[in-house]
Design brief:
By secondary structure, this protein is α+β, with helices and mostly antiparallel strands. The protein is built from 19 helices and 15 strands. Strands 2, 5, 6, 7, 8 and 9 form a six-stranded mixed β-sheet that branches. It has a five-stranded antiparallel β-sheet with strand order 10-11-12-13-14. 33% of the residues are buried.
């Protein structure tokens, strides 16, 4: 026993790291894929040598995979933690360097997401024929009380533009406005510039207030029905492998017009068009239908009634519209008393001109049947029961598709596909607690989280099925030679 602890031995950084450890997979993956990218590193001038981009990627990806998101904690781990020393090849960046790296090279995380998907496709894990999309909100790094109203912004602009205002008017300003006046880290010109930015965001958002700390965030409804300052996060997930195909951050408070952009991002990452795209009722809009039809993609998007039927939440009232069944072949509604209400009238509502109908109003009724009905007092008020549908030709096509057994079976895969990654990102990676500000920074961090999720899932699949080293090498050779993938990633 060496009481004085004077003995020593030479050892490698990875001597005590298991062969199937995730860190080894991340190191090999980045080492093999990184040369394919044409990254122009900023070599800097005099002073300390520039930190190598490749090793910084390994360090940050591994840290986020472990749930370590604080740049200060990553800095400490890079100095003392053996696995972090192995992953980063011994570099010891400061927390400032880590933050700056994510800011300058964060756009590359999306490129790496694409590489994980191509890798999965080469291994035969999936063919990306069916992807599911969904949205959730991420809380912004801004208290819901730290917001400014439009009238208060205008008052402060007058104040900092040199207009003399009564002291009473200044004292009556709400606390966030007074806190801005009291800030010493900004001079008057900086405050005026910030106020003009806040004023611009008010006009762009159409909302009455704007957050002070994160001016690009918006008021949105959470699942509890409460308003909070947040971003709308869209994701596309492969139904077979459950790999995240794309992430996108939006300022729009609803999902109505988000399908085209998130599907485009997914297509760009998987380098192919999916055959099917499934989404919930929030995407049941003409914008979604037209995009899918123009790109020859089969959509699986139920309307509200179909969603209530799938989830067992139909109205308890037996004479509610939910219990009037639509016969697609006859184009007629069948009431609870088995009487038919045939199609009677169609009204087109135009958006721009008569060549482009925006919505079609379709009306169904059966006057004679309603007059002889014994339950007419329970069913309707007036002379007859009328069923009205606001739809379009593309919406009718979608409705007919969703009534088929094939599409119903395929749509059932969606809930177990797209919800799982979101649940992991929220519970394990704690995306709602991450202090991000601005759309770009938020998107970079979420892309990094999606990348770490994909790598962990790939590692799990490969570890139980393949020899990951050989397959990574084969994959890189193919994308470098056969696919001729050249990702020139220079910042503009």
């Amino acid at each position: 026993m060496d009481i004085k602890q004077s003995s020593f031995k030479l050892e490698r950084l990875d001597d005590d790291i298991p062969k199937d450890h995730l860190s080894r997979f991340i190191v090999r993956f980045v080492d093999e894929f990184f040369p394919v990218l044409e990254v122009e590193e900023n070599m800097g001038g005099k002073g300390r040598p520039v930190l190598p981009v490749r090793e910084m990627f390994k360090l940050i990806i591994y840290a986020f995979n472990e749930g370590v998101t604080s740049s200060k904690v990553i800095e400490d781990h890079a100095k003392y933690h053996k696995i972090y020393l192995y992953v980063s090849n011994g570099i010891k960046p400061s927390q400032r360097s880590i933050r700056r790296f994510i800011r300058d090279y964060g756009y590359l995380f999306n490129v790496f997401i694409g590489s994980t998907l191509l890798f999965a496709n080469e291994l035969g894990i999936t063919d990306f024929k069916h992807i599911s999309i969904d949205g959730t909100i991420k809380k912004a790094y801004n208290s819901k009380f730290n917001v400014l109203h439009e009238k208060d912004i205008n008052t402060l602009i007058q104040y900092y533009s040199g207009l003399k205002l009564p002291n009473k008017k200044i004292k009556k300003l709400p606390r966030p406005a007074r806190k801005l006046i009291e800030r010493t880290d900004l001079n008057n010109e900086d405050k005026l510039e910030l106020l003009f930015e806040l004023q611009t965001q008010i006009k762009m958002s159409g909302q009455n207030t704007v957050p002070v700390n994160d001016v690009e965030a918006r008021w949105m409804h959470n699942k509890q029905g409460l308003n909070e300052v947040a971003y709308n996060v869209q994701s596309a997930v492969d139904t077979v492998s459950k790999l995240i195909c794309a992430v996108k951050v939006s300022q729009k408070p609803t999902d109505h017009y988000e399908l085209p952009e998130i599907v485009k991002n997914a297509i760009n990452n998987i380098n192919d068009e999916p055959e099917y795209v499934s989404a919930d009722t929030g995407y049941h809009t003409e914008t979604s239908f037209q995009y899918l039809e123009q790109n020859n993609i089969k959509g699986l998007i139920p309307d509200r009634k179909q969603t209530r039927e799938n989830t067992g939440r139909l109205s308890e009232n037996p004479f509610h519209k939910d219990h009037f069944k639509h016969d697609l072949e006859k184009d007629t509604y069948i009431c609870p008393n088995k009487q038919e209400l045939p199609f009677q009238q169609e009204i087109k509502h135009y958006l721009e001109n008569e060549t482009k109908p925006y919505k079609i109003e379709r009306r169904y009724w059966n006057y004679n049947a309603c007059q002889d009905c014994q339950d007419k007092e329970k069913c309707y008020k007036g002379t007859q029961r009328q069923i009205t549908e606001f739809t379009s030709n593309t919406a009718l096509k979608m409705k007919k598709q969703m009534e088929t057994k094939e599409y119903k079976t395929m749509f059932k895969k969606r809930s177990s596909t797209v919800e799982a990654p979101f649940g992991t990102l929220k519970t394990y990676y704690h995306i709602n607690e991450l202090p991000t500000t601005g759309i770009q920074h938020t998107e970079h961090i979420l892309a990094l989280q999606a990348l770490t999720y994909n790598l962990k899932r790939l590692n799990h699949i490969i570890k139980n099925t393949y020899d990951e080293t050989d397959n990574i090498n084969q994959f890189i050779e193919k994308i470098g030679a056969t696919l001729n993938l050249k990702c020139k990633t220079t910042e503009k």
